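task queued by scheduler; priority normal; single chain, no ligands, no partner chains; default sampling; output format set to structure tokens
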Amino acid sequence: MQEKTSRIPYLFILPAFLVHLLIITLPSLSTLYLSLFEWNGLGNPTWIGLDNFVEIFTRDRVVRVAIANNLRWMAIFMTVPIFLGFIVAVFISKTKKLQMLFRTAFFLPFVLSAAVVGAIWTAYFNPFHGINVMFREWGWENLGSVLWIVDPAVAIYSIAFVDNWRWWGFVMVIFLGALQQVDPSIYESARVDGIGRVQEVFYISLPCIKRTVAFMIIMTVMWSFLTFDYVWVMTQGGPAHVTEILSTWIYKNAFIRFNAGYANALVVIQSIICIGFYFVQRYVIKKGGLNEE
């Protein structure tokens, strides 16, 4: 009877396990398997061993550009939205009046579709009837002559700006929710001891939500290598691959070049990079004391 009872909990987790097995585990294993084949996605795959990986590391120059762009993307999103979201969250948490209005206004861009936001900002970046016209009318000729999503020097940063414009409000709401869980008596005790507003942020607010900050940093790293929508909507990796990222290059190989075996190999490389960054960050966070109770 005891043995029968001990099996009951496993029956409850069985549906979730089967869903994970069918949707996550098996497709992941099939991706690893198909990366060893030359395959167009429709016919019979041909075994080629590690040739796809050899091509990635020796002959495919686009991969290097894509990884570099992903690293730039990660650097931007690990700093700008996290810093901006935290600072604004601190100010809003101290606001008694109109707090809901500010929260709604800053979060509103996040509820918009990425395709819609990308299309709108692509129109804004048009040099003939976008923000360049406004800059030229203001006398800012240098800004008015910039080709925001065509110039190789600024294109990837322009797309990252658009994504950040939509994304940072979400980060702010996450931090705001964490700050509202901090016991108000801690702030009251600190004020009695004469602590200032700036010290309050660094010595109370930030330490009390350090787990949330660590979570956002870890997720930002992985999301930076999985981003796709804004780059695809605004430039499709162009011009001449200057805004290419791993996700868009994978998509092109799978569905445009019909080189699905090679696309699977790229997915494996992308997964290894994400897993590697995850463990590195977990180690850094643990050494920094963010895992302490």
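post-processing summary
- The two ends are 40 Å apart (CA to CA).
- Residues 2-34 form the longest helix (33 residues).
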